Amino acid sequence: MSGFQPDQPHAEVRLSPNFGQRRDEMKPDMIVLHYTGMETGDGAEAWLCNPASEVSSHYLVHEDGRIVQMVRESDRAWHAGKSSWRGDTDINSCSVGIEIVNPGHALGYSSFPKRQMDALIELCLGIVERHNVAPERVLAHSDVALGRKVDPGEKFSWRMLAQAGVGHWVAPSPRNGHAMLQPGDAGAAVEELQSMLALYGYGVEITGRFDAQTAVTVQAFQRHFRTRCVDGVVDSSTLSTLRRLLAALPGGLD
């Protein structure tokens, strides 16, 4: 295949060889957002199209708002790596991956420009319409790759997406600074926390012990839904925000 018509109107096309067929006839019903974590957008675009990298995404959104499509939405891009959500472990086969140009935490993490966010929102709205993606299935790489990835990170504006009709989000509850649950704790309250995180979709094991895995999961949750403090400690703000998100799901807590 030397090229293709873009799924998203006005997107540029630059074909990546790094893709395959979606497994078991799966269809995309999820969007996973990443940041590139490289010094330049051009460098990231070249890497995603380099066969030696063995990585790709369906789209790349540059800082100036340009959108480049590298893999057709009908195909399986290699963007999520080892990941899971709601028990699914082949996230690449059920998702559309979007890389957002940003240097990332290791190279001077910066805010995402409005032109870039506006272009991303337009792209996400198109994908949601084409594939009937539910709001709660618009996720961060850090949500599905616990402990392994932190992108797009705490400076990414999920609020802005939600205000445009993309994603599942509630305004985070105010902080009071007092820890309710933290690493080393155990018991019914920890089990309830783990159960709620798992019910939302996170791949956390329900053990009743606030272990390292639980702390990493709490950090991922905070990085998406309570970004002012990402510390892996459960305060009233974290717990209340989680409860309200669950209650706002279709069917509530059922």
Automatic annotation (TrEMBL):
Catalytic activity, per the record?
Hydrolyzes the link between N-acetylmuramoyl residues and L-amino acid residues in certain cell-wall glycopeptides
Is Methyltransferase included in the keywords of this UniProt record? Answer: no
Q: Where is the N-acetylmuramoyl-L-alanine amidase domain?
A: 16-153
Q: Which UniProt keywords apply?
A: Cell wall biogenesis/degradation, Hydrolase
What range does the record give for the signal peptide?
Answer: none
Family assignment?
A: Belongs to the N-acetylmuramoyl-L-alanine amidase 2 family.
What protein am I looking at? N-acetylmuramoyl-L-alanine amidase
State the species of origin.
Aminobacter carboxidus
